[in-house]
């Protein structure tokens, strides 16, 4: 192999496995949402309880994403990735054993610990394996598994399995693939060699690893944290509350509700690699602004629709393309390219942690409060307001897309030698 060759075979094997892994994170996390109508009847829960169950996982996810991202930079990716995927798969199965609200909250909070640990570490492993020219696309492709499995297939799988087994067995069945994938990752995923990446923030810096305070000094990190909070508010309020909105307010039956809600995943699946991939060409800042503006328009249109499954699916598909694309863009290439040398996972963890704590933790609980006290029909105002705020935040981003900054003469080359690839 020549010194300037790139191990493309490993790159794609790693990206595919990590995409499947993050897909199972999405499946295990969001399978509960379309099951909630059945769970609520069995365990006597309220809409507020539903929001709390979604929110507590987001809170623990956020805390451990910030914590374990830094740890994986120090001890290695494999020591975090493999135990994490085995743990959240088992805990997903344990969700079916819940006998009441408190036990369900306990299991979901522990799931957040494992999934929060997996999240930034898997993003960093994808960045390690990716050539800079494909970094945005690969990070988006990896994260798109979350939307495809968790938000597209989970509603269909859950609502169809409910016709055959109870909700408890649904959780047990979907825990098995993660255990298999953990074994495959053990044999494939490599540790990266410590080397500087070709991004404008790191091109002129010595290879000295700093601490989390150095991460926050990077201009785009706090901006990405705020922007991701806005984007995740859109994603998680819709994911948590839309099944109830469609069944209780628009009076759709369970099967049609499952199909409509799956639009979040199918649109998000394309958006999670489409929008970051587009940002490789147009730039991160422009893509972020377009993503927030597109989400706001589509959610406003969605709010005006009645019980029309085809139209609801189409509009929700486009809205999810933008909003889930934003999640990949901000937590992937934006956070990666803003990271100090040797602190990619730390940077991703801090950005994802902030977005999860507020957008994935507090926002669903707030949506549950709105649904309980002001009516389920008013929950859409929360994500609409959040994404409008996101437009203003995105205007503050500094451009870091390698192709764009290279044309501006800010970095010399995107061709990295073989020595900078994972071992």
TrEMBL record:
Q: Which residues cross the membrane?
A: 12-32, 53-72, 84-107, 144-163, 169-189, 223-245, 257-275, 287-306, 312-332, 344-367, 379-397
Provide this UniProt record's keywords sorted from A to Z.
Membrane, Transmembrane, Transmembrane helix
Please give the GO cellular component terms listed in this UniProt entry: plasma membrane
Pfam families in alphabetical order? MFS_1
Q: Where in the cell is it found?
A: Membrane
- Major facilitator superfamily (MFS) profile domain residues: 14-402
Tell me which PROSITE patterns the record gives: MFS, SUGAR_TRANSPORT_1
Using the UniProt record, give the first listed, main subcellular location.
membrane
Q: Under which name does UniProt file this protein? A: MFS transporter permease
